[in-house]
Design a protein that fits this description.
The protein is α+β, with helices and mostly antiparallel strands. 42% of the residues lie in helices and 15% in strands. The radius of gyration is 17 Å and the shape is globular.
Length: 116
């Protein structure tokens, strides 16, 4: 997200894009572009795909503009939890991806290679 803002500002000036727009591009618009029309909000009947961000880290302070903190200062270390379709897959450094992670890694590798 930071890279998007930096590139737009170099080309179009400091007011080219704001943090709120970039966050929307990354989340709601990203899901839409990928064809996931049920991932735009948390509501009954929609997919529960979300992350929880740990705001109690130095790079997230001060808390007066959380959108800016996430876009300009956020990193993978701030992700406390990842939930896909209502199932927690990652929580505070631990992956919860089933009994056979190696099988999942092999399948992911196979899929990536088939795309190339």
């Amino acid at each position: 997200m930071f890279l998007v803002t930096a590139l737009q500002k170099v080309r179009h000036g400091a007011d080219a894009v704001n943090a709120s727009t970039v966050l929307r591009m990354a989340c709601r618009n990203g899901a839409y572009v990928c064809g996931f029309d049920d991932c735009d909000c948390l509501a009954p009947g929609k997919q529960a795909d979300l992350i929880l961000i740990d705001l109690h880290q130095p790079n997230m302070q001060p808390l007066n503009n959380i959108e800016k903190n996430v876009v300009y200062s956020g990193s993978k270390q701030n992700v406390a939890l990842t939930m896909i379709a209502g199932k927690i897959l990652y929580e505070r450094g631990e992956f919860h991806i089933g009994d056979d992670p190696e099988r999942i890694y092999r399948e992911a590798t196979r899929i990536v290679r088939s795309i190339r």
